[in-house]
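Supplementary Methods. Inverse-folding protocol.

Structures were first reduced to a C-alpha cell string of length 375. This string, shown here, constituted the complete conditioning input.
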C-alpha cells in the first residue's frame, strides 16, 4: 500500500526520488506504475526493442514491465540475417518463434527487423562474389523468412538503411550486385511472401532534408512500380540536447502526404556529449575514442539532466500527438538504460541514460512526463 501510494504520488509529480526503495527483482513496482501502452492506446502503438535475454524472459521483473508498458516490440538483433540465416541453407528460427509466441500471448504487435540490410549479414555473404549468387540469396532469404512469419508478425522492416546522408543510395552489396531497383524488388518479393504483413522502409536521419528526399524517392518508386509499401520508419536516434523538432514535423507531413504510415521506430535520446559534434549517424562503423570528459554520468544521472531528457521526450510526444492520425507507432530502442546500444556507441564503455527506465528498471522523470501529457 505504501509503495502504491508513493508510486501514485510520483506519477503526479514526476519526482526524481523514484527507485530508492525498489529493487530490480520486485515485480510489484512494475504493475503499480501507470502504463504507457494504456495511456496512448487511442493514439498510437508504444513499442520497445527486445534483446535475447528479454525474448527468453530470463528476468521476471523485466518481463512484467515489458508486458505492462508496451503494445509493440521489435527484436533488437535476432531476426537480422546474420542470426536468423547463418548458413546458405540453414535458418535459425528458435528465438524468432519464441518472440512471436510472446507477442501473441501478451497482445504485443511484432515488427520483424529486418530483411535486407547491408550490416550484420551472414558470414557466407562475404565470400559471395557473383551477382547471380547475391540474387539467389536475396530471393531465398526474403521468401523463406517473410513467408514463415506471414500473419504471425504484424509488420516487416523490409529494407533498412539503404541511403547515404545526401539522399543517394548507399553503396551496399545489394546496390553493387543487383542495381538500384533492388529496393523495389525486395518489396515485391516481401509482398508475395507476406501478403498479410505490413511492409516498411526504415532508416535513420531521414528527418533531415536531403536524406528525407531520398526516402521519398524510394517510396514513390515502389508505389510507381505497383508494389505495396505501408509505412516509413524514422529511427529517431537523437541527442537530448539536439532534438530536430522542426525537421521531424516537416517529415511527418511530407511522408504522410505520400499515403504511408509514419513511425518512430528506434527512438532514444543520448544523454551524453556527442564526440562528433552534431553528426548523428547511427552507422555502427562510425565510432569515436573514449575519454572521461565525454562520460560524465557514471555514478548518477543528476536532476538537471533528468529534466533535459524529460523535456526532449515531452516535446517529441507533443508533436506525435499533434499528428496522431499519421503516426501509427513510437518504438523505444530498448527497455532500460542498461540494455541500450548507446552505452557502446559511438564510444565504447560509457554509461548512457537514453531511455525511460533506469538500470534498476525504475521509471525516470521522462516516463512521467509522457504519462502526464495524457492526463
Ligand atoms: O552476439 C554477439 C556475442 O556472441 C558476442 O559475445 C558479443 C561480443 O561483443 O557480441 C554480440 O553481438 C553484438 C550484438 O549487438 C548482440 O549484442 C554485436 O557485437 C553488436 O555489434 C550488436 O549491436 C547491435 C547493432 O544494431 C549492430 O548493428 C545493437 O545491439 C543494436 O541495438 C543495433 O541496432 C541498430 C538497428 O538494427 C538498425 N538501426 C541502428 C541501430 C543501432 O545501431
Amino acid at each position: 500500500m505504501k509503495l502504491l501510494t508513493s508510486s501514485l504520488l510520483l506519477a503526479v509529480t514526476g519526482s526524481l526520488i523514484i527507485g530508492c526503495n525498489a529493487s530490480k527483482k520486485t515485480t510489484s513496482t512494475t504493475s503499480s506504475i501507470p502504463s504507457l501502452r494504456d495511456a496512448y492506446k487511442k493514439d498510437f502503438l508504444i513499442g520497445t526493442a527486445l534483446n535475447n535475454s528479454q525474448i527468453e524472459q530470463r528476468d521476471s521483473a523485466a518481463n512484467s514491465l515489458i508486458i505492462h508498458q508496451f503494445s509493440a516490440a521489435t527484436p533488437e538483433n535476432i531476426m537480422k540475417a546474420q542470426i536468423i540465416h547463418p548458413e546458405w541453407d540453414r535458418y535459425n528460427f528458435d528465438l524468432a518463434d519464441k518472440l512471436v509466441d510472446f507477442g501473441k500471448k501478451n497482445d504485443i504487435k511484432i515488427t520483424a527487423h529486418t530483411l535486407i540490410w547491408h550490416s550484420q549479414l551472414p558470414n557466407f555473404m562475404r565470400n559471395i562474389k557473383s551477382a547471380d549468387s547475391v540474387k539467389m540469396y536475396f530471393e531465398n532469404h526474403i521468401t523463406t523468412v517473410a513467408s514463415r512469419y506471414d500473419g504471425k508478425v504484424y509488420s516487416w522492416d523490409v529494407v533498412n538503411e539503404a541511403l547515404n546522408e545526401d539522399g543517394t543510395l548507399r553503396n551496399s552489396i545489394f546496390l553493387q550486385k543487383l542495381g538500384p531497383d533492388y529496393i523495389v524488388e525486395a518489396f515485391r518479393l516481401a509482398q508475395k511472401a507476406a501478403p498479410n504483413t505490413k511492409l516498411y522502409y526504415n532508416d535513420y536521419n531521414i528527418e533531415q532534408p536531403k536524406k528525407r528526399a531520398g526516402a521519398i524517392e524510394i517510396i514513390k518508386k515502389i508505389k510507381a512500380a505497383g508494389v505495396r509499401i505501408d509505412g516509413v520508419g524514422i529511427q529517431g536516434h537523437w541527442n537530448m540536447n539536439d532534438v530536430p523538432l522542426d525537421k521531424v514535423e516537416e517529415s511527418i507531413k511530407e511522408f504522410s502526404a505520400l499515403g504511408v504510415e509514419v513511425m518512430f521506430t528506434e527512438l532514444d535520446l543520448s544523454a551524453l556529449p556527442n564526440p562528433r559534434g552534431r553528426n548523428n549517424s547511427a552507422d555502427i562503423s562510425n565510432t569515436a575514442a573514449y575519454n572521461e570528459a565525454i562520460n560524465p554520468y557514471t555514478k548518477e544521472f543528476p536532476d538537471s539532466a533528468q529534466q533535459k531528457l524529460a523535456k526532449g521526450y515531452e516535446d517529441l510526444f507533443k508533436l506525435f500527438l499533434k499528428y496522431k492520425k499519421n503516426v501509427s507507432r513510437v518504438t523505444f530502442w530498448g527497455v532500460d538504460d542498461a540494455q541500450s546500444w548507446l552505452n557502446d556507441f559511438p564510444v565504447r564503455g560509457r554509461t548512457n541514460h537514453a531511455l525511460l527506465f533506469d538500470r534498476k528498471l525504475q521509471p525516470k522523470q521522462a516516463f512521467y512526463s509522457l504519462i502526464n501529457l495524457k492526463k
